[in-house]
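ok so for the tutorial part 2 we go from a plain amino acid sequence to predicted structure tokens. step 1 is just haveing the sequence, like this:
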Amino acid sequence: MPKPHVVAIPIYPGLQSLDAIGPAQVFGSANQALGCEAYRIMFVASEPGAVPSSAGFALHADSLRAVPAKSVDTLICPGGEEEPIRAALRDKALMRWINDAARAAKRACSVCSGAFLLASTGILSGRNAATHWSATTGLQRAFPDIKVDGESIYVTDGKCWTSAGVTTGIDMALAIVEEDHGRDIAIAVARRLVVYMRRPGHQTQFSAALNAQDVKDDKLANLASWVEANLTKTLDVETLAERVAMSPRSFHRRMKDELDVSPAKFVESIRLDAARRSLDEGNLDLNTVAAHAGFSGPDHLIRAFSRRFGITPAAYRQIHGAALEDRAAAE
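step 2 — the prediction. this is what the tokens look like for a chain of 331 residues:
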């Protein structure tokens, strides 16, 4: 019988519990689907025993010595709020173990702000990496040699896998299971966990319309919904400015101040989100998808889509079409 693949998850006081439990459950469910211990999941900590999480309950951890760094096949560093992460970075024994495990492991992974722990080993240097949207600026500032991806839900670059945070750790773990044991097992695990659609890593953390809901100016927040409902109309600066009762110049400045984006990019982002939903949900031809989203034609859509998501609409549909078939079969 093959030796179990060791998945080691270093934990520390104040960690975000789902960052650790989510991936662990995916691997545990993979064991059930496979009918054997394909994965041996280990929580480790500087102080073995009960480790308190940010959720108010504790996770049980083995000692660092109980899981030698060289025995680790997949390392997953979970995230937490700023102070718990800072405390973990100051824990010399923990960080020494993470450093050794990251270099020895087949995969070195992080979830959410766990990217700070993984990055501190130097293994992400020169690589693309994802983290929670709220931590992207801090990660880029602390580690300028990392190419921080502020949109993708997870990123793979060589042996390094990094995810955006919380539930995206589940997406990343499902992708790892698929790489190890094939698509059918990953689908079986997704169904067991009631994860109906396995999201590819390039899918974005949030949409432009959702971002707009966070601004203090109600006019801008409402504008996003109006744009979504009127994608086939002319949506130039003058039209949008008139909608919110501003001069074009003032409107452009307000958009940059509140959302750090130009009006044109704001509209394009909402159009792309709409096109992505059309590709997810049906078999419309590309001309129709482009028209419904307000693009001048399929070529315009292809260029914008590839620039934003790093993949063509056809490739995106191929990935998601398979996932939709899986979902339909499950239902």
